[in-house]
Design a protein that fits this description.
Layout: H1 19-27, H2 29-42, H3 49-63, E1 70-71, E2 74-75, H4 82-94, H5 98-123, H6 127-138, H7 141-146, H8 152-171, H9 175-193, H10 196-206, H11 213-217, H12 219-248, H13 250-266, H14 277-285, H15 289-292, E3 293-294, H16 297-306, H17 308-326, H18 339-350, E4 356-357, H19 360-381, H20 387-394, H21 400-407, H22 411-426, H23 434-460, H24 463-475, E5 479-482, H25 490-493, E6 500-502, H26 504-513, E7 518-521, E8 534-538, E9 541-547, H27 548-552
Parallel strand pairs: 5-6, 5-7
Antiparallel strand pairs: 1-2, 3-4, 7-9, 8-9
Helix pairs in contact: 2-5, 2-23, 3-4, 5-6, 5-8, 6-18, 6-23, 8-9, 8-10, 9-10, 9-12, 10-17, 12-13, 16-17, 16-18, 17-18, 19-21, 19-22, 22-23
Length: 571
């Protein structure tokens, strides 16, 4: 693998340092990794998605059922199994820790950077272009924020890049290897998050004649190999899906073959947002480059016409982005596999005459954000003295629990973010150095995640509640969760049996049937008037435990409240 070197002033002369790590330090990826490593060590699993995925992986390990994923004892059809397999592989090596899983996700992001660098070099043998593209990618705030996230899109980005290397093999007329890599990328992508991988990578192949001379000259063979690769990827996925459908039963088979593919694309049952929503969030996702990139219009226009890599990036990203806009369910991280394409096109533009980066506006943004974070504890403890905050509290737009959580954030984090902003603003040439600006962006993202770890972390740690649930289960005491709990407690408590769910309408009957039992919930909307037996802080509210006999003694409302938003299907 070829790894480009950095600028001459960044080269290291110590021959005792392995050449590979010298190159990584020179181009910034080693510093990117080091900046994000504290996040891996200290950020807890965030509810509700990360805790749910750890719960599925835990049940897979506990029951040694690696074919059909389960959540709370029931088949889990919302996602394919590859991420859960890899989580268990990480636990086998490093032990059952959240940091071990985050380290694995960071390794997948690092692999994406390496694959992306090689992809750019294969498109154009220009180390300077590859250096800019990789720096732009790892310096994108959103990429840094999600590099260690226990989410499917991180791994999906790696699979997309594998598939696109297959597309470049077809371009080089290495038909057999191109087929293998395409099928592998598609198959692993389907096993990661389903057929969405075909949206993320497929348009680069469908529009191949727009960037590839080979595709223009051999259209039939190009599209035949693409179709065969899609079938090959489907065969890889079906090698799991068919036996899983047989073992999981008819309902599970219907879910993995239909509900989580066709239904999600056409009529999403979660995260429904308007057509234009991605246009609103994308500029924030690709900070700092939306504020820092400067280039004349001709550079943006001419790059597409004169550059194969720019045409490849457009074919890769633009139609996929449009397609995602028409999918009803939208989340920012769905676009993560397309960020390398944006970085590639921008890298080509910034290589043009007259193009540059100017990071002063980003420095101002970091300075303002840092000062705000530093001031949050003061604002939270003096809310009654600040007119508009007092009104928000009185109107219910702020809660006492929220203010309590915010008051515990260390002001030091905000000071450090402000220092990064001042560095960009005040150090000579810092605002105009691509690598310096990228690493400043990564540092700010890492500090933001550490704010979560220190300030919010104690309020998303459910280990005490999970230990109470495990104690009840081990002792044989009945316990049920009021409304769906998303597997929140399973990994934290290493629960050996499912946690029963009871709806509010059935709660009185359950308590009557289990007068010695307990009821637990983190929902706050239910009209329960008796004092809980135990109350633990959770997010901006509480996890509460009641004894069933206490609940039986309270007056019951005639009508249950409407379903809570947290009871909707998952991402």
């Amino acid at each position: 693998m070829r790894v480009f070197s950095g600028d001459s002033d960044a080269k290291m002369s110590d021959n005792s340092i392995p050449r590979f790590f010298r190159a990584l330090a020179a181009d910034g990826r080693l510093w990117w990794w080091l900046l994000l490593l504290p996040v891996v060590a200290f950020l807890p699993a965030l509810p509700i998605d990360e805790t749910r995925y750890l719960a599925v992986a835990w049940e897979m390990r506990q029951h040694l059922d690696f074919l059909v994923p389960h959540l709370n004892g029931a088949p889990y059809s919302d996602k394919p199994p590859l991420l859960f397999w890899l989580v268990n592989a990480g636990w086998l090596v490093a032990g059952m820790h959240v940091w071990a899983v985050r380290l694995g996700m960071l390794a997948a992001s690092f692999a994406s950077l390496v694959l992306f660098e090689r992809l750019v070099l294969r498109l154009e043998p220009d180390p300077a272009l590859a250096r800019r593209a990789v720096t732009l990618l790892f310096g994108t705030v959103f990429f840094a924020l999600f590099s260690g996230a226990i989410m499917f899109d991180v791994l999906l980005a790696t699979c997309v890049l594998i598939a696109l290397h297959g597309a470049l093999d077809l371009d080089a007329q290495r038909w057999r290897r191109g087929f293998v890599l395409l099928a592998l990328g598609f198959g692993l992508g389907i096993l990661t998050k389903g057929p969405v991988v075909l949206l993320d990578a497929g348009f680069a192949l469908l529009l191949g004649p727009g960037w590839s001379d080979t595709a223009r000259a051999n259209k039939r063979r190009w599209y035949a190999m693409t179709g065969l690769a899609v079938l090959g990827g489907a065969a890889i996925a079906l090698a799991w899906a068919i036996p899983a459908a047989i073992m999981g039963g008819e309902k599970y088979a219907d879910a993995i073959f239909l509900r989580q593919t066709v239904d999600r694309m056409a009529n999403s049952f979660a995260h429904r947002r308007p057509l234009w929503w991605y246009f609103m969030v994308l500029p924030a996702m690709v900070l700092p480059w939306t504020l820092a990139a400067r280039a004349p219009w001709r550079a943006w226009r001419d790059s597409f016409h004169v550059s194969k890599s720019a045409r490849f990036a457009v074919a890769w990203a633009v139609p996929a982005f449009v397609a995602f806009c028409f999918v009803s369910g939208k989340q920012p991280h769905y676009l993560l596999p397309l960020l390398p394409a944006l970085a590639l096109y921008l890298a080509k533009v910034l290589g043009s005459d007259g193009a540059r980066v100017r990071g002063r506006l980003f420095g101002v943004l970091l300075l303002a954000a840092g000062l705000l974070v530093a001031a949050l504890p003061y604002l939270a403890t003096h809310v009654q003295d600040i007119g508009f905050l007092a009104r928000m509290l009185a109107e219910g737009r702020l809660t006492v629990q929220f203010l309590h959580v915010i008051s515990g954030i260390w002001p030091l984090w905000g000071v450090l973010v402000a220092v990064v902003g001042l560095f960009v603003l005040c150090v000579p040439r810092a605002h105009s150095s691509l690598r310096t600006l990228a690493l400043s962006s990564v540092a700010a993202a890492a500090l933001g995640l550490l704010v979560l770890a220190q300030g919010i972390g104690p309020y998303v740690d459910v280990s005490a509640a999970a230990a109470r649930i495990r104690q009840d289960q081990d002792s044989g005491r009945p316990i049920a969760h009021l409304a769906w709990h998303h597997g929140l407690y399973e990994f934290a408590g290493r629960l050996a049996q499912p946690l029963e769910k009871v709806d509010f309408g059935d709660l009185r009957a359950w308590c009557a049937a289990h007068p010695d039992g307990e009821v637990v919930t983190f929902y706050s909307k239910y009209p329960i008037t008796v004092k809980p037996d135990l109350e633990l802080p959770y997010r901006f509210g509480f996890i509460r435990f009641w004894r069933a006999q206490d609940l039986l003694a309270m007056p019951w409302p005639a009508q249950a409240p409407p379903p809570d938003l947290d009871e909707t299907p998952e991402d």
